Amino acid sequence: MKKLKVFISGQKYFGEQVFALCNRLDFIEIVGVCSPIDDKYLTKTAHTFGIKHVPAGTLTGDTLPDNVDIGITAHSFDYIGRKTRYKAKIGWIGYHPSLLPRHRGRSSIEWAVRMRDAITGGTVFWLNDGIDRGDIAYQDFCFIDPKTYAMEPKKAAKLLWEHELQAMGLQLIEQALTDIHRGIIKKKPQRKEFSTFEPNTDVKDVFKPDLLMIEQYGSPST
Description:
Strand 2, helix 2 (42-48) and strand 3 form a beta-alpha-beta unit. The chain is 28% helix and 20% strand. The chain is of the alpha/beta class. The protein has five helices and seven strands; from the N terminus they run βαβαββαβαββα. Helix 1 (12-24) packs parallel to helix 2 (42-48), helix 1 (12-24) packs parallel to helix 5 and helix 4 (108-114) packs across helix 5.
């Protein structure tokens, strides 16, 4: 069976781990990556294996290789524009560490802790024009230890990522790629009535109540 030609946009340890995952799957061929030039993980690994590298911030429909079947975002902060998404024959998938549509946004894990959610999880979804709004492909969940509520939220979020959600993401991406290679495409629209979007906790005055943006049912999608 023909190999899936994959392009990875990401960075840091998770980006490197997604590269390693794809590299060990015998039905995957990595045809390029996009990452920051000074990234010590994904960029360095791509150079080691002689894989085409596109510097972060320059990925467009013109710089994406012509032979891409599917794109993957792995800790990527680059916006994947419509032309870039449509150039990939199958599309683009990404991993978000929350049970979408709940906790859209960059600080999803931290908000799950701040809001004392009993359960969180991870989602592999299909990228579209919105932020974390694309159709859901695969999800899994984990419990949040109540002891973490007493911890500094960023530290609690880091532990939850390292001990649960990072490995979950790799498992879900592998499941998605395996099914896609078999011709199985799963897409389930997100339910707007359950959606939330919270701001990046690194912004100033994030604790002000008016910065917590809860999307209303029936609000227009972007």
